[in-house]
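Subject: sequence -> structure tokens, single chain

Hey, anyone have a minute? Need the predicted structure for the following. Not urgent.
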Amino acid sequence: MKVHAVFNRDGGTFRTMDMTLFSETARTIFEKHGHTFESEVVAGKDIIKALKNVAAEAGEHVLMAGGGDGTISAAADVAWKAGVPLAVLPAGTMNLFARALKIPLELNAALESLAGGTIQAVDISTANEESFVHQFSIGFQPQIIKLRNTLEFRSRWGKRLASLRAFAKVMGNPPQFDVSLNIDGVPIERTVSAISIANNPYGHGMLPVPEGVNRGELGVYIAGRLTPAGLMKLAFTVLTGSWRNNPDVDEIPAKQVELHFPRLRRGAKATIDGELVRLPKDVVIIIHAGELQVLVPSEGPSNQNGAG
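Reply:
Had a minute. Here:
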């Protein structure tokens, strides 16, 4: 197996590492397993260009991406469209897709597990033309991220504290908006505070991570019109893992979801895999079952939907 890695030197963990030494360690580990390995370290602003250049290489190879969830999401989009396998090296704050793929979060352990891993087909979803491997979200999550980005932080813990401060501000005035949904042909009219649509339904842990990445099914999560007390209750049930018992939250499995916002405010935002994007008035979300090839640990997620 030939692996070409692109490491985002501005990714959370990589910011404080000797990347020359780390790249050599990665090469040694993969060569020990009989693979060919090369890598490059680039700034965050250059990551997409570097990923596309690697994906366009001739011959069979694996595109490895090292960085946070934003880097991994961008790499998944590039790999999917180019038809090359993706290897995920978690170097961010949450590393949600890596967790779903059962990749160890300690970097050397992740390298070892991937070097001994196998290629597997998993799902990827799209919101209009934008692909995602974790979640499309509207409502209070984009508001929290927008506020957090105005705060200063220099570390992963600093980012988490900034997120808590932003959440405290949003909690005082939760968003409420009208939306028309069409979920697998069933129309729904709601006034809500948030909608999250996951690339595979979430599991039962505290973090929003699916138990399987190849079920071929979206998870649709709708939080009704929330008061400040209701948002605080939702946060508590999320932290305790009991949110499925919260009457303000609906969970619906789906293959396709259409969203229409009759009174969309100027400058409205959504998040795709944690990154802020413009929210259009109409959004169509589709899951593409088994269309993304990924390198996973040999003991990683099983093929639950029968895709190759």
